[in-house]
Every structure is written in C-alpha cells, then in structure tokens.
TrEMBL record:
Keywords: FAD, Flavoprotein, Oxidoreductase. Signal peptide: none annotated. GO terms for cellular component: cytoplasm. It comes from Cellulosimicrobium cellulans. SUPFAM superfamilies: FAD/NAD(P)-binding domain. The lineage of its organism: Bacteria, Bacillati, Actinomycetota, Actinomycetes, Micrococcales. This is Ferredoxin reductase.
Amino acid sequence: MGDVDRPDVVVVGGGAAGHAAVTTLRGEGFDGRVVLVHGEEGEPYLRTLVDKAILQGLLTAEQAALPVPLDVELVRGRAIGLDPARRAVVLADGRELTAAAVVLATGAVPRPGPAVDRVPALAGADGGEPRVVHLHTARDAERLRALLGPDPARRTVTVLGAGFVGSETAAWLAEVGATVHLVARSRLPLAGALGTAVARAVALRHEEHLDAHLGRRVEAVTERPGGVTVRLVGGTVLESDLAVVAHGTAPAAPGTGGGVDVDDRLAVPGAPGLFAAGAVAVHRDRRGRRFRTDHWDAAVAQGAHAARAVLRRLVGGPDLGPYVPDAGFSLVLHGAQVAGFGVAVPGATPEHRTLDGGGLLTELRVGGDLVAVVGLGATRELHALRRDLRRP
C-alpha cells in the first residue's frame, strides 16, 4: 500500500458520517491524500437501510452500499486505539495511521439488553442458526430474513426493545402478517426523542396492531429447539419462533468504547486536528448537558461539517460556523409516518398541537429557541418549521 500510513486525512468509519466526510473533502476540491478506514465485512453501506430495506427484502446489502470515491484509499481494518496528540490511529492488525487531520466516524454498537445478558449461551439449541438475533448490521438483517423464511406471516416473533429500530421492525412484521410480541422496559417508549404526545400515539398504535408489553422487564430468555421462550418479570411467558434484540446503541470510539466530546465545530477539545462526527460524537447544549444523535441524516450532516472544518484547518477554507442539529429522521409505524428535525435535548420545553385531520405536532424549545420538531402525520408542518431550528 505504499506510504498509506502517512496520509493527509484519515477518516475512521465507513458509515454515513465517514462517507459524507470523504465525499465532501473531494467535492470541495481537496487534493491531498485521504484514507477511509472500514472495519466491517463487505463494502461500506447505508446502515439506516438495515431494517427499512434489507430486512424487508427491498434491497440487498450490495445495493445498499456506499461507493467510495476512486481517489480515496479504502483501508480495511478495525480501529482499536487512538493517540490524539499524534493523530495516530491503531488498527487491530498492528498498523498505525497518522495524519494531519483525523475524523472519527466510528458510529455506535448495539447495547446488550438484559435479555441477552441473562442467557448463558445462545448457540442454536436446535443445531442451526441462533434464534435470538441482534438487528444492527446488514448481516444481522440477512440472518433475520433467512430465519423468517419465505412466508413471515407464519412466524411468531418477539421484539425486545421499542426504540426506533425495534418499533419499525415490529410494525413491519405485523404488517406482513406475523404474530408479534413487543417488549419494552419503558411504559412510554421513545418519549425522550418524540415528546410525550407523539410517543403516546405511537404506543397506542402498537397496542392496536400487535401484542405490546410496555413497561415490562425480561426475566429470562431460553432458546429451545425450533423456538424461543421469553419470560417477563411477573410471570408472563411469550413463546415465539425467534426473538429480535433492539435495545438501542452506545457510541464506539477506538480504544475507549465510549463517545468523543466535540465543540460546536465538531473538533475534539485539546486535540488539534482531531474531529468526530455521527453517533460517536458527543455534543453539549448551552446548559452544558451532553447529547448525541444516532440518525443517518444527522451523521451525513456532521460528516460534511467535520470535513469542512478539516479544510479550514489544512487549507484555510471558510468557517461555516457552529454545527446546527437540523437533520431529520422518519419511520413508518402501522401506516402512519413519524418524523422530526433537530434533536430533543434533555430539558427542552415541549409544546404539543393537534392538527386538522388528526395529526400531532410537538415543538421543543430551549430558552425560547426552537431546537426540534416532531410529528405524526405532520410532514408539511415539520418542513415549514425546519428553517427556524437553532443550535440547542
């Protein structure tokens, strides 16, 4: 690979943030040496399509791939360490990459929920594929689709977790005719991200369309030949053909496994030339409280912003100002679209509105400034408010 260990810019992570960073660098005319480190099997791909398209059979993992620009060097390897002072990234095979600027875009890893922690070994009790499946990667989606078989309507599935991925997966399974048990520790899942009004409407939809067990904890999971038994605290027993674990994510920085604090330009304080973007980046609002975002649109926006901050450092590019979290998300739940822009930071004041036609809209404000908007059946209103968003 020649002197690949001395590039101008190293971007660690081939997901949405990393891809946006390298494409922005090239799109803005940067002609230095750029390396993209990719730590997963296969090609970089759009992770947001894992449950929205790959699981549903709308796209293959190959069709969801993110093409790496031809003038960007792709290095395959898992980053396990970082020396911020030297801007050096250490890979699992011992290679070390140093650069004038490093963008950490390593994303997040799935949280192991109590259902998984309390099972000593899920190695496939029937000698086949394990029937308790995490849903985070393209390979996870392919494995789950294979377990569902050609006719998912004949399956019974227990979904553990009712966050974005768990809710959307459970809703799709119910839509295609599967019998679905949805288990969530919170009585009102997604309230922190959607506000109580929209989250309550989502919970009601779950209860109308599937077997919802909200505010319940898992006591034990047993994988048996041909199926899975989930026992909830209180004695309820759920029998199913397979179980899906979707307990959310945690940031995954090389070496630390945690998040990376950034300033309002996505630079890492005290480490000149080091930046972070996407789900691994931890921001602070004006009250000093930490927050992060784990949505594809936000990762793209942060990757591009970090790349422009790199350009300012290396070649004197313009200062685009603070990063404003105005990127959005959307999901379809039982025939209704839930969407939002911005980020619902802790402590924001909600203002709920019921719209003509039955839609719901929540505006979240900090000190009078609009920092997020969320709605159910409120697409037009959300887009109209997006231009008024401010950095929290």
